[in-house]
């Protein structure tokens, strides 16, 4: 299909690259219109490099502004030119990890009025008219309040955008709504590879990691291996948040993860397309039988 339009809704600067960077680079390179919406500036994040530590929320509190620049560089690396902050830069502040005092801070995303935030996203959906929307599952992929809220706002906006009773612009029905996903079998093989390689990062037991899904829940495997270098460049752009030592990376908790050019998704709404040739285990794929979609736009007329 021509005129493909993909909308991704992510919570903080860096999530777009960690979970969907190769997929975004692939579709952008293939001429699809890729729109990234980021819900906060990541103001409450930790800072890895010592020389940037002064930006931290408990020091200069300038991390949000700094991460705007990191995100711009990451978007350039993956070829994404249409990026928006939900409600405008800094409209909703990063809420911090679940249970942090910052969860209760007025103006943080976790405290956002759902319909107000969803209305902001409906405006973008009715302007861009994407066939595909990608965000997190009900648990926000790993339980972070801003990720859970990104899911809730996206699902609400998906419904409202198609509702003729919702004011402002022509209704638009997004054909396919996806969750990002990381199959546990891929995590297990990756942890084994890290142990064998003796990586400099911590290697945690997969069952102790806050994310991961059953292989059988995955509906879609995007093989974007040709774009993994772009994903690595984008990860390097998020230097306050990520340590990158390809093919590995780590967040500020120094727990190692593998950088994959193959990324996985769960179709939450819409009609799946036909199965296609997936990726082998050694590439981070789910391997045989290749009974999953291999294109987010598959099956859309
Ligand atoms: C990938 C992601 O969502 N990162 C968030 C997350 O950052 C984590 C947080 O600082 C945690 O305390 C660390 O142990 C972990 O290593 C970090 O990845 O939460 C931040 C605060 O809400 C957010 O800014 C960051 O983007
Ligand atoms: Zn995040």
UniProtKB/TrEMBL annotation:
<dbReference type="InterPro" id="IPR024078">
    <property type="entry name" value="LmbE-like_dom_sf"/>
</dbReference>
<dbReference type="InterPro" id="IPR017810">
    <property type="entry name" value="Mycothiol_biosynthesis_MshB"/>
</dbReference>
<comment type="similarity">
    <text>Belongs to the MshB deacetylase family.</text>
</comment>
<dbReference type="InterPro" id="IPR003737">
    <property type="entry name" value="GlcNAc_PI_deacetylase-related"/>
</dbReference>
<feature type="binding site">
    <location>
        <position position="15"/>
    </location>
    <ligand>
        <name>Zn(2+)</name>
    </ligand>
</feature>
<feature type="binding site">
    <location>
        <position position="147"/>
    </location>
    <ligand>
        <name>Zn(2+)</name>
    </ligand>
</feature>
<dbReference type="GO" id="GO:0008270">
    <property type="term" value="F:zinc ion binding"/>
</dbReference>
<dbReference type="GO" id="GO:0035595">
    <property type="term" value="F:N-acetylglucosaminylinositol deacetylase activity"/>
</dbReference>
<dbReference type="GO" id="GO:0010125">
    <property type="term" value="P:mycothiol biosynthetic process"/>
</dbReference>
<dbReference type="Pfam" id="PF02585">
    <property type="entry name" value="PIG-L"/>
</dbReference>
<keyword id="KW-0479">Metal-binding</keyword>
<comment type="function">
    <text>Catalyzes the deacetylation of 1D-myo-inositol 2-acetamido-2-deoxy-alpha-D-glucopyranoside (GlcNAc-Ins) in the mycothiol biosynthesis pathway.</text>
</comment>
<keyword id="KW-0862">Zinc</keyword>
<feature type="binding site">
    <location>
        <position position="12"/>
    </location>
    <ligand>
        <name>Zn(2+)</name>
    </ligand>
</feature>
<keyword id="KW-0378">Hydrolase</keyword>
<protein>
    <recommendedName>
        <fullName>1D-myo-inositol 2-acetamido-2-deoxy-alpha-D-glucopyranoside deacetylase</fullName>
        <ecNumber>3.5.1.103</ecNumber>
    </recommendedName>
</protein>
């Amino acid at each position: 299909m021509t005129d493909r339009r993909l909308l991704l809704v992510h919570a903080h600067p860096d999530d777009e690259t960690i979970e969907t960077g190769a997929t975004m680079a692939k579709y952008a390179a293939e001429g699809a219109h890729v729109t990234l919406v980021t819900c906060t500036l990541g103001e409450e994040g930790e800072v890895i490099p010592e020389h940037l530590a002064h930006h931290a929320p408990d020091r200069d509190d300038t991390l949000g502004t700094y991460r705007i620049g990191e995100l711009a560089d990451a978007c350039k690396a993956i070829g994404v030119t249409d990026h928006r902050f939900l409600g405008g830069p800094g409209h909703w502040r990063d809420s911090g990890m679940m249970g942090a005092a910052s969860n209760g801070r007025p103006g943080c995303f976790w405290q956002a009025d759902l319909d107000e935030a969803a209305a902001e996203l409906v405006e973008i959906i009715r302007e861009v008219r994407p066939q595909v929307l990608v965000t997190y599952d009900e648990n926000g992929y790993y339980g972070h309040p801003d990720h859970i809220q990104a899911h809730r706002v996206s699902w609400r906006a998906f419904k409202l955008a198609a509702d003729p009773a919702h004011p402002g612009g022509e209704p638009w029905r997004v054909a396919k709504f996806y969750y990002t996903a990381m199959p546990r079998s891929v995590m297990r093989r990756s942890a084994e590879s890290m142990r064998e390689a003796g990586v400099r990062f911590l290697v945690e037991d997969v069952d102790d990691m806050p994310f991961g899904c059953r292989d059988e829940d995955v509906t879609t495997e995007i093989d974007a291996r040709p774009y993994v270098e772009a994903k690595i460049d984008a990860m390097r752009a998020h230097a306050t948040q990520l340590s990158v030592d390809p093919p590995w990376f780590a967040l500020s908790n120094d727990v190692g993860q593998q950088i994959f050019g193959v990324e996985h998704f769960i179709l939450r709404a819409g009609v799946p397309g036909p199965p296609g040739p997936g990726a082998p285990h050694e590439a981070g794929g789910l391997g045989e039988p290749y009974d999953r979609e291999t294109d987010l736009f598959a099956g859309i007329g």
